[in-house]
Amino acid sequence: MEPRACQVKAQLRPLGRPVISTLSNYALRYTRRASKLSYKYTARGCIFTLFVVNVLLYAVTVISTEILVITFYLGYHLCQRVEHSTDAERKQLKILKSEETSLLKQVIRVMGIDFAPAATPLTRRLQTLAAALCSFSFLFAGIFFTVLAIILSFSNLYWIVILYTGWYVYDFRTHEKGGHRVHWYRRWKLWTKMAEYFPICLIKTAGLPADRNYIMGYHPHGIMAAGSFINFGTEGTGFAKLFPGIAPHLMTLTLNFMFPFYRDLLLGLGIVSVCRDSLDWILKNKGVGNAAIIVVGGAQEALDAHRNADIALTLTSRKGFIKIALQNGADLVPVFSFGENNVYAQAANPPGSKLRDIQPPCVPWPRASTIQLRIRPISNANHHSGWCPNSCYSSVETDPATD
């Protein structure tokens, strides 16, 4: 008589054959079907597969990051509880100060993670979320909408891309003609929450009559010019109430208006391209009561934006807007943003360093020139690094207009 183990093996052996045979048949059948597919469906399948793989990789990354965040979060608060608990509580919970807890705190500090308190109010959480959404949109929204348009082109919703392509061609030069200002869009609560996150305030030092046009020179650029966007690209700080009758037109690189869908989000805020044709159009063809806001230093000035350091402005070769103001009879209004360079931290890049040598070629592509930013999670309360902006007081002051 065979041992029991041999009987079990004999019973399992025939069960494996049908399973393998079934899987091989399915694989062969799928291969035959794939070979008969047209190029159209094959391309759809490839793009869909790449999309699914990217989503899965992103999900795995997010889940892994959250697991690490939760682990360090619990460890950090455990250390805090041990540090502030009495001897009786430690004995009751069987928790004593040890080398392990001290080591955990050191590891947390070394990794640069300083978690926000667990009792942080919901309002503060919403402000942080608003700031993070705006920052990630600045970095990745253009690429995201471009990839989305490609995916829609190979789906049953391809007609959306066809219709939008017609609109894109028809509306191609609008960023040089004042944009499509949508007032309710500029008054979103999202912008107010982002302004409260820093907080940002707009200080009015003199009134601007609505019967003239203005060119505002904004300094300094910082990493992403967050102050200029909130104060002049939105109603987050109440520009319309401080300067009634003045329509602000924040100016940015023309490259930002090449991305599908993303360009419409910018145009809806009244943001236009920073070029001579656009500036002339605002000052000549839109009547009076217009203000063009130019971040004079541009992306070149962003390379010199360091926290708690002397502010270096790039002005020597940036005088073209002054000539345009004289030609159109517009007043110049200097605008200075206190705390703009403290919003983000970037790695040390003194002139002559290897990092500084590779950054100038990336200046025409502002998103590429921000590779020196240090990454941190949104829940990190450390105000020294990361994509999420640092919560620091920022004020923008407008000086009296000058002829």
TrEMBL record:
GO molecular function, one term: diacylglycerol O-acyltransferase activity
Protein name (Swiss-Prot/TrEMBL): Acyltransferase
Taxonomy of the source species: Eukaryota, Metazoa, Ecdysozoa, Arthropoda, Chelicerata
Entry-linked InterPro entries: DAGAT
Keyword annotations of the record: Acyltransferase, Endoplasmic reticulum, Glycerol metabolism, Lipid biosynthesis, Lipid metabolism, Membrane, Transferase, Transmembrane, Transmembrane helix
Bilayer topology annotation: Multi-pass membrane protein
Membrane spanning stretches: 47-74, 129-151
One Pfam family from the record: DAGAT
Enzyme Commission designation: 2.3.1.-
Pathway: Glycerolipid metabolism; triacylglycerol biosynthesis; Lipid metabolism
Biological processes, Gene Ontology terms: glycerol metabolic process; triglyceride biosynthetic process
Entry annotated with the keyword Transmembrane helix: yes
Main location, first listed in the record: endoplasmic reticulum
Subcellular location: Endoplasmic reticulum membrane
Cellular component aspect of the GO annotation: endoplasmic reticulum membrane
Family: Belongs to the diacylglycerol acyltransferase family.
